[in-house]
Specification:
The complex is a heterodimer of chains A (175) and B (104). Chain A is an alpha/beta fold and 175 residues long. Chain A has helices spanning 30-45, 91-94, 99-113, 119-128, 137-143, 160-166; strands spanning 3-4, 20-25, 49-54, 132-136, 154-158, 171-174. In chain A, strand 4 (132-136), helix 5 and strand 5 form a beta-alpha-beta unit. The radius of gyration of chain A is 19 Å and the shape is globular. Classes of the chains: A alpha/beta (175), B mainly alpha (104).
Chain lengths: 175, 104
């Protein structure tokens, strides 16, 4: 228990670390929107530069209207357990009308209880933390969408090649 | 648990230098901790730090940047301006609290 005169100071490594993270969000189901958001947000909080590229179904995450209406379905999800008793949900049950809205409500409720924001609010936070949001050109062309349909903080709609070029040297996550 | 001498008194810290005893902290010590990590404290910085202290007393855990925004009313963008790069850890360090454990 020796007292030291030289204080121990956490290593915040404020210098330019150059660490970059590129996250490709390709899923449009509510449950699959979160992994990229949580990891991107955590990286920003650690001083890492973060670029997020929204492609295919993940394009819904940055669509002004659709980002508020994302759904979760237990169909085909064998890791879905019932809220009571932790019993695995039988797949025949997953198809019953009403189960999907309930599952969506329940997921949103559980996420909110943890103090975790909704998808639009989470993206607000990521943009405020310096995260850069990009839309995928092929996805926009396929769906006939333009930047006018997207959140204001989406910097631009770019090609896959543009994204790969601009994230040279970054660590990459595909979700 | 290491101890170190700051402002002429003994302070308990963890291996990284975060204070481990809530009551050993006062604002004078907070200023010293801020100097250690090159943060120049302004009134705005102190408002955030005071919120963190109060919230820790009530909740028993260090607020995340999300909570400092929603419960404290300090926007995330402001937190990054005041405590650049790693706001959650820097705020906790200056406030004499453990690192936040929440994911968001």
């Amino acid at each position: 228990m020796a007292a030291s005169n030289k204080p121990i100071v956490p290593k915040f490594d404020d210098g330019p670390s150059g660490r970059k993270l590129a996250i490709i969000c390709s899923k449009g189901n509510l449950d699959m929107a979160y992994p990229g958001l949580v990891l991107g947000n955590a990286a920003l909080g650690e001083g890492v530069e973060v670029d997020l590229f929204f492609t295919f179904w993940g394009f819904d995450m940055i669509h002004k209207k659709r980002q508020k209406k994302m759904k979760f379905s237990p169909v085909g999800n064998f890791a879905m357990h019932l809220p009571i008793g932790g019993v695995r949900m039988p797949q025949w049950l997953a198809w019953i009308p009403g189960v999907q809205p309930f599952a969506t409500w329940y997921l949103k409720h559980s996420i909110k209880k943890l103090g975790v924001p909704t998808v639009p609010d989470f993206l607000d936070q990521i943009a405020a933390s310096g995260g850069r949001l990009w839309g995928c050109k092929m996805s926009a062309d396929m769906a006939g969408l333009t930047t006018a349909d997207l959140r204001e903080d989406v910097i631009d709609i770019i090609t896959a090649a543009d994204f790969i070029e601009m994230t040279e040297g970054a660590q990459l996550l595909f979700i | 648990m290491p101890t170190q001498t700051m402002l002429g008194r003994e302070i308990h810290v963890d291996d990284e230098g975060f204070l481990t005893e809530f009551d050993e902290w006062d604002e004078k010590l907070g200023s010293e901790l801020a100097k250690n990590i090159d943060i120049e404290m302004t009134d705005r910085h102190w408002e955030v730090v005071r919120f963190l202290r109060k919230d820790f007393q009530e909740k028993g855990e260090t607020a995340t940047t999300r909570r400092v925004d929603t419960a404290g009313g300090f926007p995330v963008k402001l937190q990054f301006e005041l405590f650049p790069k790693k706001p959650a850890k820097k705020m906790a360090y200056i406030a004499g609290l453990p690192k936040p454990h929440g994911c968001v």
